[in-house]
Amino acid sequence: MDIRQLRYFLAIAKEEQITRAAKTLSMEQPPLSRQLKLMEQELGVSLFERNGKQLKLTQPGIILQKKAEKLIHQLNETITEIQEIDQGLRGTLSIGSVFSCVSLLPEKMKQYREKYPDVIFKILEGDHFTLGRHLENRDIELVITRLPFESDSPSSKYDIIHLPSDPFVVVAPQDWIESQPSIHMRDIASLPLLALKSDRTVRLNEKIVNECRRFGFEPNIVCECSSVAIIIALVVAGIGATILPKSVMSSFPMSEIKMLDILDATFQSDVGIVWLRERYLSKSAQAFIDTFKEDQF
Questions:
Q1: How many domains does the chain contain in total?
Q2: Where does a domain end: 30, 59, 84?
Q3: Helix (H), strand (E), coil (C) string for the chain
Q4: What is the pLDDT along the chain (297 residues), one digit of tens a residue?
Q5: Residues 183, 241: one domain?
Q6: In terms of residue numbers, what domain contains 35?
């Protein structure tokens, strides 16, 4: 069994059909069927359960899929590492970002592109769990995120570079609050609040709730939502106010909302860059991380 056969097997496992897999691999169906038969004969097991044209992995097939994916990833990363020894930065840099950190990217991408114009960016946006899976699948190399990174994997799997912390601000409808540019924590107690959280990502909201409790009140939360964009739309509609990291607001027009600094709050939102500890980071990814490090010295 060789690497070529493993790639064939993974294509079949993904498509769950020989015909579709052959099309994906740009080859004819009979040779692909023969290769699968040879693999099963060599291993002495059935890798798929057949139901007409539909194929489902057996238990041995599931184990082989996991091992094969890891082997292919390692091979691809080894090839990348070897090729980068004598080459300049080029190719595609795939990164992920939670929506609340998207505003941190444009300036860094501009700086990076000035130095490395041959690198093309691919950006995926999602919550911690979605981006954690993309990291595991090697769809992306690193994630710009709020910390802690609440993925399915333990924190020991990741390396993290901490970026400058981000203060929280109150975001409210324009006509709710007078013209002052700031607010005290005690004044937040009377506001109906929209909370940024989901069933799986809760730590940012917990930080806000704990700060309110430190000032002796429970926040009046009237809505919980996992989308920053939806929360801002609700603020514009006058449903409530919200508390968000300040940098988030650079992604939204301020004509219909008001942003107020919190004068006596001590809490901040931690930000960082996360990547898989055991994975080889391409030179392109390392150089992108360096653009953020420059601001810390």
A1: 3
A2: 84
A3: CCHHHHHHHHHHHHHCCHHHHHHHCCCCHHHHHHHHHHHHHHHCCCCEEEECCEEEECHHHHHHHHHHHHHHHHHHHHHHHHHHCCCCCCEEEEEEECHHHHHHHHHHHHHHHHHCCCEEEEEEECCHHHHHHHHHCCCCCEEEEECCCCCCCCHHHEEEEEEEEEEEEEEEECCCCCCCCEECHHHHCCCEEEEECCCCCCHHHHHHHHHHHHCCCCCEEEEEECCHHHHHHHHHCCCCEEEEEHHHHHHCCCCCEEEEEECCCCCEEEEEEEEECCCCCCHHHHHHHHHHHHHHC
A4: 889 999 999 999 999 999 999 999 999 999 999 999 999 999 999 999 988 889 999 999 999 999 998 888 888 878 777 776 656 677 889 999 999 999 999 999 999 999 889 899 999 999 999 999 999 988 999 999 999 999 989 999 999 999 999 999 999 998 887 668 899 999 999 999 999 998 888 999 999 999 999 999 999 999 999 999 999 999 999 999 999 999 999 888 888 899 999 999 989 999 999 999 988 888 899 999 999 987 654
A5: yes
A6: 3-84
pTM listed for this prediction:
0.72
